[in-house]
Amino acid sequence: MTPLAHHVPDPAQAPAGTTLTITRPDDWHLHLRDGAQLQSVLPHTAAQFRRAIVMPNLRPPVTTTALAAAYRERILAALPAGADFEPLMTLYLTDNTPAEEVLRARASGFVHAAKLYPAGATTNSDSGVTDLKQAYAALEAMQEAGLVLALHGEVTDRDIDVFDREKVFIEDKLIPLRRDFPGLRVVLEHITTKDAADYVREAEGEIAATITAHHLLYNRNAIFTGGIRPHFYCLPVLKREVHRRALLEAAISGDARFFLGTDSAPHARGDKEADCGCAGCYTGLHALELYATAFEAAGRLDRLEGFASHFGADFYRLPRNTGTLTLRKGDWVIPAELPYGDRTIAPLAHGETLGWQLHG
Ligand SMILES: NC(=O)N[C@@H](CC(=O)O)C(=O)O
Ligand SMILES: [Zn+2]
Ligand SMILES: [Zn+2]
Question: CB within 5 A of ion ligand 2: which residues?
């Protein structure tokens, strides 16, 4: 049903017991939520990653440097004893974000990007930007100050087919935006189409893209295998196989414009298995195992380290991590569910077998 199980021996794949050691990786797009839910998911990410760009789409959103500072403290307080993990904070742009707030964020040293959600595009984006022009003062300041713009790249027009919203965003919004701010450093988040991969590869200036593990492993059939599968529903939604292949090509290409961002986006099981289910896949538990599976299937495990551990740090102008992380080849079954505050969460591909496991 899915590409995870390795029941057929494949000579391109590593034998059991094989290990893969890479520089400690970072997650350049992550949702940690807050409170008891933060407490539940943070240990998973801290076991996998040294740093993560933490998305600001809380309720209420993290719209100021002061809110980002407080959220950062809550994350640090929720870390398991002995964990070596650094949250990299982001600012949630609204129609009213003043240039001074951008400058405060930049000066803080702990805010590394400002996030632009087109209003209504995704989870907790109602306070996002209604029209890019409304954010021009903030964007101008970001360009000046060198603060990265992280973009949820989808148009919100209900008349545009849900599978076309990323492509239309690039044509109608991103290209004009970058013409107006050629010096702005932009990360197009969680890209899902060949169109996005082609644009990022070929565009002028400082632009990069994050790619999730689920968009490397699955096409849109996963949402409809034998019935409706809400745990494969995320935004931007999974696309056709031709797009999955293009994303995989980009990820394994060694092109430093493409790097790891899990977009691990936990929602309580009941909120996904619902009349109107939430968008987001939970991959915080097993992100690197999922990425390793995708890179291995493409015969390019040797390219995982650049993608996971080097290129994102380089783009964000942060030092690369020291220390290593090791994955070991060997089957394990992804748990059916995990605690999530006082509720539960179903990890992506729960119940299926993964061929890699974190070793330490
Ligand atoms: N990716 C998702 O499907 N959901 C994310 C929001 C986002 O990253 O767009 C979430 O916060 O749940
Ligand atoms: Zn998004
Ligand atoms: Zn996200």
Answer: 122, 152
